[in-house]
Design brief:
With about 290 residues, this protein is an alpha/beta fold. Helices cover about 50% and strands about 5% of the residues. It binds 3'-phosphate-adenosine-5'-phosphate sulfate.
Amino acid sequence: MTSPIFKTSLGKDQNAINNMLIETKGFQTRDTDVFLIGYPKTGTTWAQEMIWLIVNNLNYEGAKVFVDERFPILELCGFYSNVKSVPECHRNSIEFAKQLKDPRCLKTHLKQEYLPEEILNQTEKAKVIYIARNPKDTCLSTYYYYKNILNVIDCSLEKFCDYFISGTNPYIGDYWNHVLYFWQRRNQPNVLFIKYEDMKCNLINVIRKVATFLQKSLTEDEETNLLNWLDFKSMKNNSAVNHDALYQKSGFMRSGQTDEHKKEMSEEIIKKFDSWIENSLKNTDYEM
Ligand code: PPS
């Protein structure tokens, strides 16, 4: 990905990226699959852990395995196929996903046009859980991730916000196109739409919605244990989900807050965001 704000390109081998995009589009889904789809930095790792545990009957022993091995991210092979230092589930993500036993949990950040055709046509009955987050907090989270963890940008927050609003990342595209496609499909029986903010203010409610959607039921004790497991501090200290080993530094689990943008973004940036949000949501019933 090239853009004036990037010091280093995120994907270096365009052929590998192109092949990955063909493969994700043609990816064969199964009726038992659970797809988690969301724009990057919307809380997808948190949702991965919640969904995997619910699907796998709260198998905390099994949850000691690195989360992306249990719940692979389809597109990563496009960006890491030649990178020896990343785990197999990243380097070879699509093959890895194909070999998982049912029921598979699969994540992707890709924009609509690169999603498996079977998800778009609904020819198979795979379930889709879509997660959204306030775009200002999503942008802030992405900024710190690119700057401090991936070390691929060196620009001001203001400049990064312009890039985020432009939606020019070729693989994930515009934030609102990403979100609204599944918002419009949210009442279909195989789609569940959740929000980071709802997980923050009422996690138990979201756990129950996800469990019902996945046809699982949890006792009160099980709910309490899961709440504790998914707590930010607990996830930050959990090496299977905190990504410290992958990046050889901490900070992927950064602050886990809502509305942090209010402290960090200037009035001018917030105005820009607000007018973009208003424009993008004009003819929709999306509730932020
Ligand atoms: S990625 O790289 O796209 O997979 O990132 P993603 O997991 O989607 O989003 C990362 C942000 O989610 C926060 N996070 C949490 N918040 C609250 N509680 C829990 N348990 C939790 N786990 C992850 C993480 O800290 C990132 O947000 P920021 O705002 O940067 O802290």
